[in-house]
Amino acid sequence: MSPILDTFIAPPCDEQIETLYQDEHLLLINKPSGLLSLSGKNPQNLDSVHYRLVKTFPGCTLVHRLDFGTSGLMVIALNKAINAALCQQFSARTVTKIYSALLHGHLDENEGVIDAPIAKDPALFPLMSICPVNGKPARSRYQVVERCTRKAEDGALIPLTRVQLFPETGRTHQLRIHCQQLGHPILGCDLYGGLQFPGTERTPRLMLHASELHFVHPISGESINARHGSPF
């Protein structure tokens, strides 16, 4: 079977990147939902975090990425040495990332772990899949913040759970596919079941936000504890 080509064209994103912290070595930004982290191969997908920032900060590089629909905290290296030092922290898993999300349904447990290997299948692109045989180890923790309801356009009440998600590994689409595996996909997730529930067809975005990022500044050695509240 031939691999499926990526035909996704990102709609224009009018929202601006918010700079939360800046020094001569790195930036901390809040990425808006609906903006690519890196420009795509398709010339219509040129606009991205990197495309915008490199105009002001030549030589800046992305240390990590957020999915197109995910908003929230990103750290940007302003030179190659800082990029290498920060990438080492991410590789060593000494960086703590915490996400806020709205999940479909009410979770039974207040906290738990999803331990499910994730594999890339060219035939399913851009989808990832859970595969115990060929998948790379992937582990996420969750903690319930509140169980709530949201009124749909037809007046029906949609049960939702607000959670904090703690990825212990960094696989592509990890949190989205792990929440689907849990049986409670992220609201607004078009790839892993988040739009398959009555009353959610008009959800404006993926309800996933990178709300906390904890790492060590490569030059000062200071602990950076960045937080940005969820917009939903």
UniProtKB/TrEMBL annotation:
GO terms for biological process: enzyme-directed rRNA pseudouridine synthesis. Residues 25-181 form the Pseudouridine synthase RsuA/RluA-like domain. SUPFAM superfamilies: Pseudouridine synthase. This is Pseudouridylate synthase. One of its GO terms (molecular function) is catalytic activity, acting on RNA. InterPro entries: PsdUridine_synth_cat_dom_sf, PsdUridine_synth_RluA-like_CS, PsdUridine_synth_RsuA/RluA, RluA_PseudoU_synthase. It comes from the Bacteria.
